Amino acid sequence: MGYAILGYIFEFVKKTLNKKEYKVFLEQLYRLRLSSGLRQSDLAEKLKTPQSFISKIESGERRIDLIELREICIALGSNLKNFINEFEKALNESR
Question: What Å distances lie between residue 5 and 2, 8, 14, 62, 64, CA to CA?
């Protein structure tokens, strides 16, 4: 039974990675970093992570949770609320 649950979660993640909404999310995150004037390595330094961590997030290879998103937003001089508002706006514009 545990395998079935894991299989379900895996399928759910696999599907959301290919959704248009996730692509918009990644694009918004990338734009926020660029508008902050930071390179991936600069952001990684602020977060005390390797540059490859940022690269994998921006390419969609690594997913992030809400806490990580909040930390990234703060490191980029923004906040989670503003990011979500801009994300929703971008989603509406992409329809």
Answer: 5, 5, 14, 21, 21
